Amino acid sequence: MTTGSVLAFDLLAAIVAAAGWLGAGATAVAGRRRAATAVGAAALAATLARAATTILLARAGWWFAAEKVVIAGPLLLAAVLVAGPRLLRPAPVPFLFAGYALTAGLLVTVLHGYPVSAGAGLLAVAGVAGATAVTWRFLGSGPVPRTAVVVAVAALVAGTGAAATAGAVPGVPHAHQHRDVLPVGEPTQRFTLTAGTAVVPAGDRDVAAWAFNGQVPGPQLTATAGDVLEVTLRNRDIGRGVTLHWHGYDVPNSQDGVPGVTQDVVLPGQEFVYRFRADRAGTYWYHTHAASDVGVRMGLYGVLVIHPKPVIGVDVTVPVHTLAGVPLPEPVVQPVAAGDPVRLRLINTDDTTHRYALAGAPFRVAAIDGSDLRGPAPLSETAVLIPAGGRYDLAFAAPGTPVALYVDGRMAWSSGPVSAATGGWPVLDPLTYGTAEPLPWSRYDREFTLVLDRGVDLRGLLPRYAHTVNGAADPDIPSQVVRPGEIVELRIVNRSLVVHPWHLHGHHVLVLSRDGRPATGSPLWLDSFDVRPGEVWEVAFRADNPGMWANHCHNLPHADAGMTLHLIYA
Amino acid sequence: MRKAFVIVTGMLLAVFALQFVFAAVGAFTRPGGDGSYTLHSITGMAVIPGLCLLTIVCAVLARAPGRVLAMTVLPLGLVVLQALIAMLARAFTDASGASTTAGLVVGGLHAVNAIIVVHVVVGVLRAAQELAAPAPTVQVAQR
């Protein structure tokens, strides 16, 4: 059982336990003693199940269990001690007290689980004591116990105070422009991208889109290693503004295209010129980083391929995207001569993971995220999962028979008629693929832990249920500060129930381990990787690209809902 | 205040009916996506909980008996449960984000719970109406 499924079952047990005790209380109020005993017994079982999931999660990592042990734990214990002995002699107040205690523990996990805060704990206690006092007033015998009222009021006052002070933590100022003057040389490749609203064909109909040069995806930018690229970005009529971010290509900071951080947003009628040297061959893509959630979804993206000097064989790019519910690109049939080397550059420009399967020929995963793998073995009947923003290059020699690429079961590219059922194929784990190499570093100068979760964010104008990092949401997440030349270890922990594709700008990170198990395959230098629920990834990078860099979840609605922070060089 | 209790509970029931309509709007929007359920989400996460709280306040001010008050609190709890079920259903997806059998079973509970909440709110509305129209037994007791 994975930690991710334990997280889901923990939530399920907490819901059933809370609802069960409240239901048992209501049944007792109605005077149905036998039914109350039965419902209470079920609630007790669910309560013990939550205790078990809490222990499992604590063993998987303190990040997953902290608030369940420190806040929900004592509440759960009190519930069992108060309601348990009354199981055979049902009484409304003890059962309802247990219901309030379990509900409070559940709400702490869901609303503000990590890090454990005194405010959340005290407010939970205040809620339980207050609700119990009110219940006693209506259902109990005798006057409301003073202690319950005193505890409720004291915890409410102290909890509100603690929550308010926690909110006053100052963040690092975000308005920052890093200026670097680049001696990149004369451009050898020039492109112009004009962003504007357009109507483009998708599937069998026309849809409204935002497009570069009137097409979705935007024009493919192709260069050869060593070229100096000059890309002029113009905005015709995108009111929210545009920029260009070179996803996966580690450009100097001033060319990174993050509005408000590395440049000003390009508004209608304005333009911005990007210039950088393309030295590292590989598969990359570009997209707007202004209002990126809606902008990329509406179509402001395209492919950037940098070829090594000699271009050999057949080179196909498959940028997968969902435009207005229609999966792109349109299926392509492209005959290939037997024996030709083929390179399929698979790009996921969506917000969620896609599953790719190549049928009809053994293949190698030659590169991931633009970096070649070491000693990739031939694979067949194996699917690959590409995270949001990620790229895999599949290489194979064309056989005499047709081959086909399926994306989530839909044919996206083929060299002839093929029928294959790829749904049951096993999935490649890149951490065990290829041959290992000793780590380039023996020490780490700095260590950061990012705990990904959901939580209530009250610091903005309107309260929101944000996607959080270490309990805070953008713009209140403290920036991570590094010095040039340092080796930085990044630990990313996902205690939420959804996948977070992590993306650090300006650097490629080397994967060290996942869930405590070291990566044993080829060195993996990634810029986009899926941290699934319950997973702990340890990655490292050398701080060799000064500036201020976005470090965020590439499920762009999540980034928009708070899951963005910054890495800055001191 | 008893009139207000009836009116607010009636409004709550009406919004619940609308909420079913919004769910259908989400289901039939083409092309479908996370955005199709915006109306449903906003109503479910903001309007309905707000009205639930208002109903509880009205019930307290109308001096509703304990049993009616408990019944009035119940919809709020079930609405919180409703949001948690939706969240949990989304958690049970496979690696590429597609739904799984477990997720659909949990998701189905979202509909079952919705029917239960409406049932409870109808009960609250009846109780509120009884409270507003003085029952004959009360008059007997007053004599």
Automatic annotation (TrEMBL), chain A:
Listed Pfam families: Cu-oxidase_2, Cu-oxidase_3
UniProt-listed GO biological process terms: cell division
Protein transport is among the record's keywords: no
PROSITE patterns attached to this UniProt entry: MULTICOPPER_OXIDASE2 (PS00080)
InterPro entries, A to Z: Cu-oxidase-like_N, Cu-oxidase_C, Cu-oxidase_fam, Cu_oxidase_Cu_BS, Cupredoxin
Keyword annotations: Capsid protein, Cell cycle, Cell division, Copper, Membrane, Metal-binding, Oxidoreductase, Transmembrane, Transmembrane helix, Virion
Transmembrane region(s): 6-24, 36-57, 69-88, 95-114, 120-139, 148-169
Keyword Ion transport: no
Name recorded for this polypeptide: Multicopper oxidase with three cupredoxin domains (Includes cell division protein FtsP and spore coat protein CotA)
Plastocyanin-like domain boundaries: 199-309, 471-568
Source organism: Actinoplanes philippinensis
One function term, GO molecular function aspect: copper ion binding
TrEMBL record, chain B:
Native source organism of the sequence: Actinoplanes philippinensis
Lineage of producing organism: Bacteria, Bacillati, Actinomycetota, Actinomycetes, Micromonosporales
Pfam families in the cross-refs: DUF6220
Keyword vocabulary terms for this entry: Membrane, Transmembrane, Transmembrane helix
Name this protein carries in UniProt: Uncharacterized protein
Residue intervals passing through the bilayer: 39-61, 68-92, 104-125
